[in-house]
């Protein structure tokens, strides 16, 4: 073959043709080697793709760590950084990226928020009594999880790993009218891969399965409602809703775009659900996502929740999935009747940052309704009384309760136009508990604001 090529070159005139024929010769010489090298080429290509993917993940993690370090340094300079001796979880990239302060959330997104939590708390969990690094004592799982703290955030969180179910203990049967609230933090590597789904389920657990072992074997129940979060990138997140009875679908809606979800990555966001018989309404960070009149199988009393995390291709240290501040409450608070006719209204729905008089934006729905009641009854004067749980110093709790009552007065006056002269304030600290301060539910009940008609 080489001799033939040389003879051809001898007869051809012109450099362009010579170059063309030389290139052709090289291709011809390479053809016999292709079958031998094919596997090697594909192996190198696969390795190259893998290397590039890992590089993107590393770059994303580095950016997250850099951002977290900058935030931490800023907090130390302001005198708010934690000391090295404070309780912290195992250090991972995903934990460090959750560094945004809860107080910095945009309250404007709650300006149309009309969620009002149920009147009586039946279950609450913030994992405050669980040990860092251990699985929550009262919960069950088919895989693993651990209680952690997050940089820049207060309280403790349940870190959830993929391919797992995280099931609460049984609670009092939920009535026809109830509310559910919880906070989540999601962190992802932003590498273009598919992320695990989170499937929040309300279901009925029989009395003979209090430990949940039967449920973890087949995940069956008499009936359930499931909300599926599908995280994505660049506005590609979505959500869907379904309900089931005896293993059969009763309701399934189409996948719905949830563009804002990925804008919440790396910081807490609040989820609120309000069920009234078959009707289900849902808000994320104050914005209404669902209002569907017939979706909940109302004749099945739910008494348990399951947060399932589906399988994922990421390593555990590449993503962070966290859950906390869970609260179930039953009943519909008749604010107008209780305040105007009965002379007293008490709510656990006005929330504050920890050890602070700063009102959380998810309190907007309660304050808005209260403002409406007071505007409709312009001659009514009210005393606002703050109460705390027993955590911390008694004298500081007394001062905190007074400051929180004053903050509520200011919000009603400034944001809802209620004449400040109609509002008096006081605080009782931890001196008048309505439940024991030994459980998360008891503490949640004791952290309340009371409105007394004068």
TrEMBL record:
Cellular compartments per GO CC: cell outer membrane
Subcellular location per the Swiss-Prot or TrEMBL entry: Cell outer membrane
SUPFAM superfamilies linked to this entry: OmpA-like
Protein name per Swiss-Prot or TrEMBL: Outer membrane protein/peptidoglycan-associated (Lipo)protein
CDD domains referenced in this protein's UniProt entry, alphabetically: OmpA_C-like
Biased composition (Basic and acidic residues): 53-78
PANTHER family recorded: LIPOPROTEIN YIAD-RELATED, STATOR ELEMENT OF FLAGELLAR MOTOR COMPLEX
OmpA-like domain segment(s): 339-454
Signal peptide as annotated in the record: 1-37
Keyword Membrane: yes
Gene3D superfamilies on file: OmpA-like domain (3.30.1330.60)
Keywords attached to this entry: Cell outer membrane, Membrane, Signal
Region called Disordered, residue ranges: 53-101, 423-442
Biased composition (Polar residues): 86-101
PROSITE patterns, A to Z: OMPA_2
């Amino acid at each position: 073959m080489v001799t033939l090529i040389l003879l051809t070159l001898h007869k051809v005139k012109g450099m362009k043709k010579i170059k063309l024929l030389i290139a052709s010769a090289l291709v011809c010489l390479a053809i016999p080697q292709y079958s031998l090298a094919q596997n090697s080429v594909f192996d190198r290509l696969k390795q190259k793709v893998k290397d590039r993917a890992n590089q993107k993940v590393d770059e994303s993690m580095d950016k997250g760590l850099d951002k977290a370090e900058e935030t931490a340094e800023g907090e130390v300079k302001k005198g708010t950084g934690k000391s090295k001796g404070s309780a912290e979880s195992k250090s991972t990239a995903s934990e460090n990226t959750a560094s945004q302060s809860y107080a910095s959330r945009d309250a404007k997104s709650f300006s149309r928020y009309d969620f009002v939590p149920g009147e009586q708390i039946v279950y609450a969990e913030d994992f405050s009594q669980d040990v860092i690094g251990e699985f929550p004592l009262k919960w069950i799982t088919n895989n693993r999880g651990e209680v952690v703290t997050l940089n820049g955030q207060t309280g403790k969180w349940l870190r959830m790993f993929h391919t797992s179910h995280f099931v609460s203990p049984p609670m009092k049967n939920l009535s026809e009218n109830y509310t559910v609230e919880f906070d989540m933090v999601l962190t992802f590597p932003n590498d273009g891969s598919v992320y695990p789904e989170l499937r929040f389920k309300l279901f009925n657990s029989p009395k003979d399965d209090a430990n949940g072992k039967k449920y973890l074997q087949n995940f069956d129940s008499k009936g359930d409602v499931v909300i599926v979060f599908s995280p994505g990138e660049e506005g590609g997140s979505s959500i869907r809703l379904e309900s089931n009875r005896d293993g059969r679908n009763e309701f399934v809606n189409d996948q719905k775009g949830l563009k804002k979800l990925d804008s919440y990555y790396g910081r807490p966001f609040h989820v609120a659900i309000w069920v009234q018989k078959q009707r289900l309404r849902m808000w994320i960070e104050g914005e209404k996502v669902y209002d569907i009149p017939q979706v909940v199988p109302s004749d099945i009393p739910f008494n348990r929740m399951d947060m399932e995390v589906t399988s994922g291709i990421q390593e555990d240290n590449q993503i962070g999935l966290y859950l906390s501040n869970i609260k179930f409450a039953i009943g519909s608070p008749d604010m107008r009747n209780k305040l105007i006719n009965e002379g007293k209204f008490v709510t656990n729905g006005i929330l504050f940052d920890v050890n602070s008089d700063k009102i959380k934006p998810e309190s907007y729905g309660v304050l808005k309704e209260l403002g409406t009641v007071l505007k409709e009854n312009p001659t009514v004067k009210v005393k606002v009384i703050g109460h705390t749980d027993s955590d911390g110093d008694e004298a500081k709790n007394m001062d905190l309760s007074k400051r929180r009552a004053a903050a509520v007065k200011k919000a009603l006056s400034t944001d809802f136009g209620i004449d400040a002269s109609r509002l008096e304030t006081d605080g009782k600290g931890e001196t008048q508990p309505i439940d024991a301060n030994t459980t998360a539910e008891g503490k949640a009940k004791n952290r309340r604001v009371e409105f007394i008609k004068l």
